[in-house]
Design a protein that fits this description.
Elements: E1 2-7, H1 11-21, E2 27-33, H2 36-46, E3 50-53, H3 63-73, E4 78-83, H4 88-96, E5 101-104, H5 109-120, E6 125-127, H6 132-141, H7 145-148, H8 151-161, H9 166-173, H10 177-191, H11 196-205
Parallel strand pairs: 1-2, 1-3, 3-4, 4-5, 5-6
Helix pairs in contact: 2-3, 8-10, 8-11, 9-10
GO biological process, one term: regulation of DNA-templated transcription
Domain HTH luxR-type: 142-207
Organism: Caryophanon latum
Length: 210
């Protein structure tokens, strides 16, 4: 079952999305948030598999800011931006924040489900009307050390290189050992690495320790 958190300041939009997703037996809407602050709180509380996040939230914390914190603290949660903005600057920012998906509000319900299904199975889904070549170029442009890993992931990587265990890293960063494991798995996925030795080699080569 894919558990979904909806984030939009318009209650009618949230209810409409929930109604669309109710047609799918393997999707459950576990929570709704009206702004970014509430989204962060519910992300910690519910730990959904996927968050459908609006970007523009007048009067509340915006979707980009909320996504940044969630991705840094709970990187195993997939985030799909669901927005009316298809300008390139918004798409670039979503990529910088390691968003897993990006779809437009005028998309059909089937597109929404496909996006959820894809990111749940560790595939990105950007349905933004751009040619695949241009979209791939945007991703490649952002594949730099500071963009690929969040600040917390960089801390975990650095301590791993220095030989700390998951429990020791958890104590140093005031997080759980399980969260450390999730960070490491996310790092390996982002960097397309398959072993701890490769991870350590990457960290040393890319200057994560002095």
């Amino acid at each position: 079952m894919m558990n979904i958190l909806l984030v939009d300041d318009h209650v009618l939009i949230r209810k409409g999305i929930a109604l669309l997703l109710d047609h799918y037996d393997d999707v459950t809407v576990v929570g709704e948030a009206s702004d970014g602050e509430e989204a962060i709180q519910l992300a910690y509380q519910l730990e959904p598999d996927v968050i459908l996040m609006d970007i523009s939230i007048p009067g509340g914390l915006d979707g980009f800011t909320a996504a940044k914190e969630i991705k840094e603290k709970l990187p195993h949660i997939n985030i799909i931006f669901l927005t009316m903005h298809n300008e390139i600057a918004y798409i670039e920012r979503a990529i910088e924040l390691q968003a897993d998906g990006y779809i437009l509000k005028n998309s059909q319900g089937g597109v929404m489900y496909e996006a959820i299904y894809k990111v749940y199975h560790n595939e990105r889904y950007f349905d933004v009307g751009l040619p695949d070549e241009q979209l791939d170029k945007l991703f490649k442009q952002k594949k730099k050390k500071g963009d690929v890993l969040s600040t917390r992931e960089q801390e975990v990587l650095r301590l791993t290189i220095l030989g700390y265990t998951n429990v020791q890293i958890a104590d140093k960063l005031f997080i759980s050992a399980k969260t450390v494991e999730n960070h490491k798995a996310n790092i390996m996925h982002k960097l397309e690495l398959t072993s701890k030795a490769e991870l350590i080699q990457y960290g040393i080569t890319n200057g994560y320790i002095d």
